[in-house]
Amino acid sequence: MTVAPARRGRPGHSLDSLLDTAVAVFIERGYEATSMDELAARLGVTKSAIYHHVPSKVELLRLALDRALNALFAVLDEPGALTGPAIDRLEHVVRGSVRVLTAQLPFVTLLLRVRGNSAVESEALGRRREFDRIVTDLVRAAEEEGDVRPDVDPAVTSRLLFGTVNSLTEWYRPGRGLDAEALADALVTTTFSGLRTAAAPVPPEALR
């Protein structure tokens, strides 16, 4: 898909602030039920001011979903996800996904509510499935290396792991308790202790 070049924003109304507001309203009311008139009213601008940044509401949705997905896929390109035992790479991806969720909470929340009702949503779901496949392959590799218990299907393990990560969108609020690293420590400690084989020791950093 060809991406239109970003347009210069008017003073006080950047594309980022527009996206932040649009995502908040999409989550609150649902994408289909949100009109451009409502977005303009929430921002205190005219619709033409919104069209100065984007050509349509669907482009706002695409940009929002891409922000969450691009951040998740960037975790897969980090050194910790590319080298070393598969179990360590899997832990890195889980920790990185928690960091993405806490940093991009509204955008990830919107992503998790996508049901494929449009071409943009279907594309986002396709990218989510690709991410899930990569994680499943990591679980399978860790099982083959003897670090993950073999009595649970790798696809099920992957779904359970990221079902736990994704559930954070329901209750986690930045600035109220655990920061991203402490939250990742807690999640890894509780999930990986049951995932690893009895012969595979839990690394000290996971017990902090």
TrEMBL record:
A Pfam match is: TetR_C_24
Q: Which UniProt keywords apply?
A: DNA-binding, Transcription, Transcription regulation
**Which residues form the DNA-binding region?**
35-54
Report domain HTH tetR-type positions.
Answer: 12-72
Keyword Transferase on entry? no
Please give the Gene3D superfamilies that the UniProt record associates with this protein: Homeodomain-like, Tetracycline Repressor, domain 2
Q: Check the record and name the SUPFAM superfamilies matching this protein.
A: Homeodomain-like, Tetracyclin repressor-like, C-terminal domain
Q: Which GO terms describe its molecular function?
A: DNA-binding transcription factor activity; transcription cis-regulatory region binding
Protein name as annotated: TetR family transcriptional regulator
Q: What is the lineage of its organism?
A: Bacteria, Bacillati, Actinomycetota, Actinomycetes, Geodermatophilales
